[in-house]
Amino acid sequence: MKKLLIGNQAVAAGLHDGGLGVVSSYPGTPSTEITEFLSKYDDLHSEWAPNEKVACEVAFGASLAGARSACAMKHVGLNVAADPLFTLSYTGVNGGMVICVADDPAMHSSQNEQDSRHYAIASKVPMLEPADSQEAYSFAKSAFELSEKYDTPVILRMCTRIAHSQSIVETTEAIPAVLKDYEKNPSKYIMMPGNAVKRHPFVEERTLKLQELAENCIYNTVEYGTSDEIGIITSGCSYQYVKEVFGDSVSILKIGMPNPLPVNTIKDFASKVQKLYVIEELDPIIENHIKSLGINVTGKEMFSILGEFSQKTIADAFGIKANDSVTADSPVPNRPPMMCAGCPHRGMFYTLAKNKITVHGDIGCYTLGAVPPLNALDTTLCMGASISGLHGFNAARGNETEGKSVAVIGDSTFMHSGMTSLVNVAYNATNSTVIILDNSITGMTGHQQNPTTGYNIKGEVAAKVNLEALCKALGINRVRVVDPYNLKECETTIKEELAIAEPSVIISRRPCVLLKSVKALPSLNVDANKCKSCKRCMSLGCPAISMKNGKAVIDNTLCVGCGVCKQLCAFDAIN
Amino acid sequence: MKTTNVMIVGVGGQGSLLASKLLGRLLIDEGYDVKVSEVHGMSQRGGSVVTYVRFGEKVYSPIITEGEADYIISFEKLEAARYAKYLNKNGLIVVNTQQIDPMPVIIGAAEYPAQVLDELTAKGIHIEALDALSLAEQAGSSKAVNIVLMGKVAKQFDISYDKWIKAIENTVAPKFVEMNKKAFDLGYNS
């Protein structure tokens, strides 16, 4: 049956139909839906792990036990899972294992633009890269066989445009999940030096075998065009843009297995075309490989290392005239993403900004505290860095900053990698103040459960981490809970904890307003007769409040009645 | 057969994903090759969002670039102006006249170009504007703006009225079917 599936749903269907037994993941755009769709199957075990390293190790354990397993993450998640990945390359697998990683060229929802293909090369693990949902399905399904045959984990690389584009998929018969026997095999699975030293030659031999496979496999395909003038080597979504522009008029070598890359296939293709181009998003990985073979090719001098491509990128580069278009004369203001009306983070950020506190931020919806008018953040690096960064900041400047700087981190991010950073604050004793923004959900990626919510991936009741008890157990004696809708309580608590000469945690607790379980309160309204146009309420950056004819007005379709603006109004105009 | 390009644009949270899901499902049933490119993640938080729907005999790229769109369905006035350059010279913009101020306008750092649709019309762009929010509220929910707009644009595609209604029945939750059918009719007959 033909179905219209986003790439990530096709990956989920492919993994399931390939006989998947266990999947463990941490959410991250653009990879999240792979595991969300897998959680709808009842014939496999699915879970949200606290972070990608845990997820990858769970998948390894399941593979060791004989199940076909998978984990999914965004590109920066693979940094976290890199530790198990590099040694998994040595141990190999028992049941087939697939690591799905989704890159985000153009950084639609990411903090960097790293190219995951480097990981496949560095860890010497084969990588597959689909160019549409049909390939996402069939590559994911076939990856288990590849994994078991070559005794290696397989990385399946997605990118935003493949992960989040729907195209037509025809599924094939599902392979039932089976458990292979587990046999103790210390020389293969205990990677201490004496064993690892014997596994490394295996890895190198495996790479040679995979290179042979790369010359003749379903993943790399050649299409000869009606003319031999132009030959293009490309992969992933770039292939679609090339076909859009050139149709069947040029010859194309589509690389669906970016590691290891073929040699003879490329030499043969290059010899049959007059001029060779390589079109790949992000880093020149295929290009450098082609050049290392002594073949003349044009790549990054024509196609940027930055961002993502389109059919226009390619048409422009080849001097093909673009369609005419019309634009408005008036400037069109930007519409950046922002915190929602009633977002529980807003009251806390307003308080921090008002008191001119240096704020070490983290990864989540609350990164939006950085944008005007709040401008509340000083730094955001990676998951967990708020707390460790604050500790280092205070270690460098001592008393000067301890009383006026904080870290802010969400509940899910704290579970992911904030805990170890908090241990470091307690153990190495800076007087740091950490604010956990507990909105009872993993927000930015679209509402996934986590160990602090009390529910698992299927929405069933699960063990719930008690954040207060956890922080105390990690060595923090001062742990307080505030309601971020109460500005006075926020301000008093922050000032008291910053003044105290010992580490402390403030838990700012209020569920995300977008949760179905959260009922909106009646919308507030501005009494235009009382409004003195002071714009104090505007300093919150609430999308529901704007100035019309010199007076503040509240959009009743957006306002959820959180009451934070009411607390700011000195003229009692908001009710 | 030429590929038809449809862009659905709006503000994160306005329900454009449901609109593209509905259209995509209908087009695949008509036997077209279809690609739909969605937006997830950060831009969904009140940012400018765009969904591309492409259909024809064989579709390659999942995205639409400047001067290529045959239709732009805009959930908000400013967003119609933002993406107007994607329209081809024979294209049509169907736009909800609702104004949602972006943060730079809210904080007074920029001005909302209130007359922007007239400006585009003056330049020869074919625009059909409607107050989809009022029609949605009339149907029973301000959230049905997406279905009102799909009703408005439905006649542009070679898909029968009955198939649209059937697709709504198959796509939205049972308790909202009647309300959404009403919203579709209000758009269809506007």
Cα-to-Cα separation, first versus last residue of chain B = 30 Å
- Report strand % of chain B: 15-25%
Q: In CATH terms, what is the architecture of the largest domain in chain A? A: 3-Layer(aba) Sandwich
Low-confidence stretches of chain A: none
- Give me the CATH fold name of chain B: Pyruvate-ferredoxin Oxidoreductase, domain 3
Secondary-structure element series of chain B: EHEEEHEHHEHHHH
Any idea what the shape of chain A is?
A: globular
* Secondary structure: helix percent of chain B: 25-40%
The 3D shape of chain B can be described as: globular
Number of domains of chain B: 1
Number of helices of chain B: 8
CATH class of chain B: Alpha Beta
Q: Which strand order does the major sheet of chain A show? A: 3-2-4-5-7-6
How would you describe this protein?
The complex is a heterodimer of chains A (575) and B (190). Chain A has helices at 7-17, 32-38, 52-64, 75-80, 82-91, 117-123, 133-150, 160-163, 186-189, 193-215, 236-246, 264-271, 285-292, 311-317, 345-354, 385-397, 399-402, 411-427, 467-473, 487-499, 564-568; strands at residues 2-6, 20-25, 45-48, 68-74, 97-103, 127-128, 154-159, 165-170, 221-223, 230-235, 251-255, 275-279, 358-360, 405-410, 433-438, 478-482, 504-509, 545-548, 551-554. In chain A, the strands form five sheets. In chain A, strands 3-2-4-5-7-6 form a six-stranded parallel β-sheet, with helices on both faces. In chain A, strands 13-14-15-17-16 form a five-stranded parallel β-sheet, sandwiched between helices. A four-stranded mixed β-sheet of chain A has the order 9-11-10-12, with helices on both faces. Chain A is built from 21 helices and 19 strands. Chain A has 575 residues and is an alpha/beta fold. In chain A, strand 10 (230-235), helix 11 (236-246) and strand 11 form a beta-alpha-beta unit. The model of chain A has no long low-confidence stretch (mean pLDDT 97). Chain B is α/β, with parallel strands linked by helices and 190 residues long. Chain B has a single domain (4-132, 158-169), classed as Pyruvate-ferredoxin oxidoreductase, PFOR, domain III (Pyruvate-ferredoxin Oxidoreductase, domain 3), CATH 3.40.920.10. In chain B, 38% of the residues lie in helices and 23% in strands. Chain B has eight helices and six strands, in the order E-H-E-E-E-H-E-H-H-E-H-H-H-H. Chain B has helices at 16-29, 77-83, 103-106, 116-122, 132-139, 145-153, 161-171, 177-188; strands spanning 4-11, 33-37, 48-56, 69-74, 87-96, 126-130. Chain B has a six-stranded mixed β-sheet, with helices on both faces. Chain B starts with a strand and ends with a helix. The chains are: A alpha/beta (575), B alpha/beta (190). Strand 8 of chain A pairs antiparallel with strand 2 (33-37) of chain B, so a sheet runs across the interface.
